[in-house]
C-alpha cells in the first residue's frame, strides 16, 4: 500500500513537472515574445529588466529600483516591465503633478492589477477615467463614512474599543502586542462601519471574517501579478475565501429577510439601496482593503512611537486629559467615562496632538508606490515624454516622505515637523502624500482619524506603557522599516508594550 502510494506519487510528480515545464515555455512565449514594446517617446527603459519576468526588483527591492531608475535617465522618468506589463516610473515635482492630477490616468485600473487583486489587466475601455464599478464603490463609501453616519455609530465604536481593552485593565499589568490587539480593534470598527453588526458583535464570526480577509489579502503575490492565468495556491485560497465570505453575508441577509428583521448598519443600507449580495461582499472587501491595513498599522504604531518618546507621550496624554476636563460634567467621573460621553465636536476638533502623531506615523509607515494606468486610448504627454496607452504608472512615495531635504533625518518619528514654525510638509508642492492629493484624496480620512483618536485616547487614559523586547526588558529600539516594502504592514519582528493600568479614578 505504502509502495503503491509512493509509485503513484512519483507518477503524479512527473506529470506535475512536465506540466510545469510546459508552463514555463508558455510563460516565456507569452511574456517575452509577445510583450508590447515601449513606443518611441516613452521614457528610457532601465537596465534592471530581465527577460520574461521584467524588473523583479519591483517586488523585492522596490525602493532600490526607483532610486536606480531615476539615476539612469536625464528626465528622471523611466520605463520597465513587470511580467508583460509596461510600467512607467515618474519622479520629480512635475512627475508627481502629472501622476496625481492627470485625469487620463485611472486609479482603479492601476491598483486592480499592480496591487495584485485582479491580476488580469482589464481590457482597455478607453473610458477616460474610472470604471462604473469604481464609481459605484466610491459613491457607496462616501455615503457610509459621511460625518452623520460615523457619529451616529460613535457609541458603538467607543464600546467596542473599551470592551477590547478591558481584559488588559482587569489583568492590571502585563505585556501586549499592539500590532495584534489594536489591529483587531480597528478591524472590528471597520466591520461595524462598512460591514454588518452581526459580524462586529460576535467574536467568533469576527475572527472568521478577519481570517478570510487575510487570506484574500495574502493572495496578492508577485506570482499572481506575473502569471495572471496560473491557478496558484494563493489564488485558489482567495477564491475559496471569497466564496465563504459571500455565503456568510448571504446568510445574514436572508435571515433578516425571513424574520423581517432590520438593523441600523451598512449591510442594511446597501440592501435597501438594492445592491446584490455579490456587490455587497465586493464592496466590504474593497473597503477593508482601502481602510484596514493603513488604519490598523498606524493606530498601533502611534502607541509604539509614544512609548519611546516621553515628550510626545506627555503632550498626548495632556491633550486627552484636558479635553476630558473641558467636558467633564461630574467632577468624580473617571477619565474613561468622561471620554465616552464627549460630544462629536470634541472628537472632530480637539485632538490636534494625536493628529500630528498620526500624520507622522503615516509618513513613515506608508511604503512603496501609488498606481495608475493610462486607459484613455491617447498617449499622455508628460513634458516631452509620453505614457503609452495601456501602460501602468507608478510614483514612489519615499521620494518626498523620506527626502532629507524636506524632512531632515527622515527615519525619525517626530511630530514637531508639523508645528507651524517648522511646517516641513509645506516645503515643496505636495511634500506630504499620506492622505493622497489631487484627484484621489482618501475617502475614508475622517473615519480613519476618528478611529485613531478613540483608540489612542482610551489607550492613554487607561494605561501607562513602555516599549520592551521579547524578554520584557525595556528598550528604545524601534523595529526597522524595510523601505523596499510594497505597502504598510506589521513590523517583521513583534513589538511588545509593557503596560500597567492607571489609577482607578483615572480610568
Ligand atoms: C490611516 C488610514 C488611511 C490612510 C493613511 C489612507 C491613505 C490613502 C491614500 C494615500 C490614498 C490615495 C492613494 C493614491 O493616490 O494612489 C487613499 C485613497 C483612498 N482611501 Fe484611504 N487611507 C486610510 C484610511 C482609509 C479608510 C478607513 C477608508 C475607508 C473605509 C479609506 C478609503 C479610501 C478610498 C476609497 C480611496 C480611493 C479614493 C479614490 O478612488 O479617489 N481609506 N487613502
Ligand atoms: C495612452 O494610450 C494611448 C493609446 O496608445 C496613447 O495614444 C496615449 O498617448 C496614451 N496616453 C499617454 C498619456 O501616454
Ligand atoms: C518627467 O517627465 C516630465 C516630462 O518630460 C518632465 O516635466 C519631468 O521633469 C520629468 N521628470 C524629471 C525628473 O525630469
Ligand atoms: C533581559 O531579560 C532576561 C530574562 O529576564 C535577562 O536574563 C537578561 O539579563 C536581560 N537582559 C538585559 C540586557 O537586561
Ligand atoms: C533595499 O534592499 C537592498 C537589498 O536588499 C538594500 O541593499 C537596500 O539598502 C534597501 N534599500 C533601502 C532604502 O532600504
TrEMBL record:
Residue intervals passing through the bilayer: 12-33
Highest taxon listed in the record's lineage: Eukaryota
Keywords: Heme, Iron, Membrane, Metal-binding, Transmembrane, Transmembrane helix
Residues the record lists as binding heme: 442
An MF annotation (GO) of this entry: oxidoreductase activity, acting on paired donors, with incorporation or reduction of molecular oxygen
Record's signal peptide: none
Pfam families on file: p450
Cofactor(s) needed: heme
Xref: InterPro entries: CYP450_sterol_14alpha_dmase, Cyt_P450, Cyt_P450_E_grp-IV, Cyt_P450_sf
Family: Belongs to the cytochrome P450 family.
Protein name as annotated: Cytochrome P450 6A1
Species this chain originates from: Lineolata rhizophorae
Source lineage: Eukaryota, Fungi, Dikarya, Ascomycota, Pezizomycotina
Amino acid at each position: 500500500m505504502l509502495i503503491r502510494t509512493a509509485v503513484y506519487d512519483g507518477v503524479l510528480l512527473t506529470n506535475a513537472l512536465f506540466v510545469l515545464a510546459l508552463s514555463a515555455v508558455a510563460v516565456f512565449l507569452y511574456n517575452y515574445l509577445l510583450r508590447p514594446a515601449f513606443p518611441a517617446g516613452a521614457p528610457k527603459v532601465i537596465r534592471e529588466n530581465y527577460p520574461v519576468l521584467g524588473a523583479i526588483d519591483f517586488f523585492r527591492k522596490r525602493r532600490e529600483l526607483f532610486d536606480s531608475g531615476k539615476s539612469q535617465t536625464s528626465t528622471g522618468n523611466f520605463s520597465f516591465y513587470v511580467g508583460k506589463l509596461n510600467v512607467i516610473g515618474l519622479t520629480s515635482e512635475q512627475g508627481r503633478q502629472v501622476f496625481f492630477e492627470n485625469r487620463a490616468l485611472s486609479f482603479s485600473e492601476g491598483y486592480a492589477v499592480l496591487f495584485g487583486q485582479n491580476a488580469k489587466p482589464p481590457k482597455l475601455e478607453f473610458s477616460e477615467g474610472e470604471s462604473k464599478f469604481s464609481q459605484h464603490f466610491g459613491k457607496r463609501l462616501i455615503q457610509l463614512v459621511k460625518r452623520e453616519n460615523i457619529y451616529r455609530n460613535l457609541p458603538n465604536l467607543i464600546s467596542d474599543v473599551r470592551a477590547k481593552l478591558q481584559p488588559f485593565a482587569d489583568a492590571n499589568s502585563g505585556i501586549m502586542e499592539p500590532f495584534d490587539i489594536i489591529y483587531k480593534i480597528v478591524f472590528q470598527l471597520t466591520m461595524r462601519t462598512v460591514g454588518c453588526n452581526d459580524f462586529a458583535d460576535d467574536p467568533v464570526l469576527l475572527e472568521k471574517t478577519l481570517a478570510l480577509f487575510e487570506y484574500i489579502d495574502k493572495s496578492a503575490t508577485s506570482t499572481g501579478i506575473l502569471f495572471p492565468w496560473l491557478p496558484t495556491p494563493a489564488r485558489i485560497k482567495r477564491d475559496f475565501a471569497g466564496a465563504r465570505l459571500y455565503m456568510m453575508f448571504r446568510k445574514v441577509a436572508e435571515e433578516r429577510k425571513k424574520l423581517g428583521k432590520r438593523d441600523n448598519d451598512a449591510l442594511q443600507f446597501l440592501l435597501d439601496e438594492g445592491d446584490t449580495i455579490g456587490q455587497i461582499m465586493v464592496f466590504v472587501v474593497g473597503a477593508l482593503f482601502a481602510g484596514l491595513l493603513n488604519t490598523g498599522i498606524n493606530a498601533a504604531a502611534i502607541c509604539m512611537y509614544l512609548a519611546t518618546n516621553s515628550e510626545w507621550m506627555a503632550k498626548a496624554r495632556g491633550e486627552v486629559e484636558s479635553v476630558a476636563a473641558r467636558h467633564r460634567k461630574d467632577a468624580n467621573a473617571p477619565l474613561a467615562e468622561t471620554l465616552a460621553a464627549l460630544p462629536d465636536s470634541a472628537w472632530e476638533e480637539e485632538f490636534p496632538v494625536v493628529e500630528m502623531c498620526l500624520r507622522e506615523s503615516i509618513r513613515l509607515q506608508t511604503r512603496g508606490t501609488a498606481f495608475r494606468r493610462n486607459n484613455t486610448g491617447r498617449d499622455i504627454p508628460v513634458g516631452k515624454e509620453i505614457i503609452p496607452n495601456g501602460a501602468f504608472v507608478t510614483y514612489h512615495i519615499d521620494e518626498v516622505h523620506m527626502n532629507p531635504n524636506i524632512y531632515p533625518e527622515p527615519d525619525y518619528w517626530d511630530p514637531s515637523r508639523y508645528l507651524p514654525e517648522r511646517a516641513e510638509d509645506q516645503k515643496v508642492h505636495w511634500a506630504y502624500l499620506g492622505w493622497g492629493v489631487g484627484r484621489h484624496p482618501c475617502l475614508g480620512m475622517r473615519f480613519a482619524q476618528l478611529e485613531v483618536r478613540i483608540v489612542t485616547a482610551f489607550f492613554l487614559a487607561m494605561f501607562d506603557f513602555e516599549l520592551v523586547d521579547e524578554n520584557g526588558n525595556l528598550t528604545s529600539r524601534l523595529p526597522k522599516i524595510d523601505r523596499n516594502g510594497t505597502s504598510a504592514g506589521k513590523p517583521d519582528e513583534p513589538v511588545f508594550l509593557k503596560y500597567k493600568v492607571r489609577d482607578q479614578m483615572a480610568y
